[in-house]
Each structure stands twice: as C-alpha cells, then as structure tokens.
Amino acid sequence: MFTRKLMFMLKKLLIVLILLPALPAWIAVQDYLVSRRGIEAVRPADKAVVLATKAYEQGRPNPCLAARVEAGAALYRAGKVKKLVMSGGINRDHRYGSRTMQALAERMGVPASAIEQEDQSSDTFENIVFSARFIENSPRVVLVSAGYHLMRSRWMAEKQWPGKDIQVFAAPFCSEPNGGYAFSLVREVAAVVKNGAKGRF
C-alpha cells in the first residue's frame, strides 16, 4: 500500500518536472494569441472588469497599469461595454489600484459615472471574488489584463462567476519595469501552480 502511494506521488512529481519547463513557453504563446485579438472581435458586453497591478514602480507611475486602463477605456469608447469595474485594493506599493485606475480612465475620456471601483482585493483571486457583486446582473463580461495574465484570470473567473459569458481583452504589451517579460512569465507559472493546487480553477 505504501509503495503504491509512493509510486503515485513519484509519477505526479515526474509529470510536474517534465511540464514545468514548458509552462513559460505555453503562457507566452497564449499571450501572443490573445494579444492579437483586436477590439472588433469583442462582442458587446455589459461591463469590463479591469484587473490592477502595482500603481507605481520605482517611484514612477507604472506603465503596465496604464496599459490595462487604456484597454478598458478603448472598450468603452468603442461602445463594447457600458461600464468599467476597476478592481484593485491596496497593492504592494501601498496605494489603491482602483483609485489610480479611475483617475487614469477619466483622463482617457471615460466619465466617472461609467466607472465602478472594487477596492478590497490584494491579488488576482480576490480581484475575481470581490468583483462578483459588481457583475451580478451582467450576463456578458469582458476581463481585461496583461495578455500573459489572462489565461489564469479567466480560469478563476469561470469558476467564481458561473453562468457568465466571459470574454478576454489584452492590454497593449508592457514589460514590467522590474525583471522584464521573462520574470513576468516565471512569476505567472508560479501563480498558475499555486492557484491550481488551491483548487481555484
């Protein structure tokens, strides 16, 4: 009995060790595919949920957060969504992501009346969980984030938002200032493994 259990665990470990090196490449391919999808391919929806990242990097506004907001604003300006839900509580930089995102969106021409703030979340899973109340009466939703982040985000949203028609829309490419794109992919692999182990998708 013990030997069979040990063999099962060793097989699982072997599968993980084989697949782990391939995960960054797979995520990069998913990023490429979703990022090529233009705004014209998005079906009209009630709301877009825009996921936050750090508001500031090294004391300067984070261009990657601005890219995500720009993608949401583009959906609104194109008439693809009626409202934007800015999802982000106090982040690692001790700032409310949702507030920074609303200010950016208003500068991009989105009226305050078309923006709602989810300001309690501290990570992607909480973004999804705490945004649920904002989309209760929205059958079709667009999830907006960086391309490499959308696969995991959608998996979690599909579990937490049952019955919703969930589309994704990628922000313009932006490499996080600290560590670059390769670091973002490695971090995303770790997040996929961690959230998968927690049964979040």
Automatic annotation (TrEMBL):
Annotated signal sequence is none
Q: Name one Pfam family in it.
A: DUF218
GO CC, alphabetical: plasma membrane
Identify the domain of life.
Answer: Bacteria
Query: Which positions fall inside the DUF218 domain?
Result: 48-173
- Alphabetized InterPro entries for the sequence: Cell_Envelope_Assoc (IPR051599), DUF218 (IPR003848), Rossmann-like_a/b/a_fold (IPR014729)
Q: What is this protein called?
A: SanA protein
The source organism is: Neisseria chenwenguii
